[in-house]
Every structure is written in structure tokens, then in C-alpha cells.
Amino acid sequence: xxPEAHTEKSVRLYKxxxxxxxxxxxADLLTGDTYISPxxxxxQAMWWMFVGRSGNDTLRLxxxxxxxxxxxxxxxxxxxxxxxxxxxxAGRPFVIDGALYRLGQDCYPTYGNQVHAFRITDIxxxxxxxxxxxxxxxxxxxQGWNAEAMHHVDAQQIGKGKWLAAVDALGR
Length: 172
What we know:
Order of helices and strands: EEEEEEEEEEEEEE
Shape: globular
Strand content: over 45%
Number of helices: 0
Structural class: mainly beta
Low-confidence stretches: none
């Protein structure tokens, strides 16, 4: 588990000793800066970490062959710069039909307005490119449990063509 810790100066890794109630600190994956919504994924024999910066308009990318690191900032990082509509991570990246997707919050005009998916078209220790899927995955509804924000999606494939997703929203 890598918890959100935007007030800390590190990204910390924990291991479950008795899931879901007991956790043990394992390692600091990154230190020395403010890291918002770190999201990790293993893809093509590498670990990738997408992490936001204060202000929600910058997305940085780090990689390593081993989970506990050392983590190296990608040479194309930041991969999103000065864009409130796409930068802040919005959930764990996932793979569909061999393609990697990341999720990004649209924080304009307000935090968590909606969540977009981005198909990563090229990722390696030296290259990175992505394309936004036009239709948002989820968005605030203006009423009820998700009236004000839809800002996180955690999707898990549970069978062929079947997915289960947990979402985090802000209601009234």
C-alpha cells in the first residue's frame, strides 16, 4: 500500500501483515519533495509511478525495475505541465488488451470535476506519450452523493469483459 500523504515529504510503502487491519512500514520510495496521489503500476518488466505536485497542474513520472527502488525520475518528466484538466492522478493505472491506461482528474474549474482515461501509447525508460480518451469515465452530477466531485476510480478486471470499480466522490 502507498497511502496519500500530500503533507509529507515522501512516498511510503507499507505491507499488510494481517489484511486489512495491520500494516508494516517497508520503505520510502521517494523523499525530499511534496508528492500528491502517487499511483504505481507494474508494466513491461518495470515499475512506474505517476505523482502529482502541489497545485494539481503537474504530473511527474518515475520508474524502477524493483518496487523498493531506487526510483529514477523519467527524462520526459514532468509528463504533464501546467494543465489542471489532466495532471492530477485519479486512480491506479490499468491494462486492457495489452495497453496501459492512466487516470487523471480534471481539476478545472474545481477539484475533481471529472476523471479522464489516457491511453499510454509509448512508455519506456526514455520515452513517453499518451492520448486522452474523449469521453470522461465519471463526472460530478450536481446532485446527491457525487454532486461536487468524482475524483478517483480504482478499476479491476474480474473476468473476460467484466470489471469492478470503486469510486471516490464528494456529495452534498
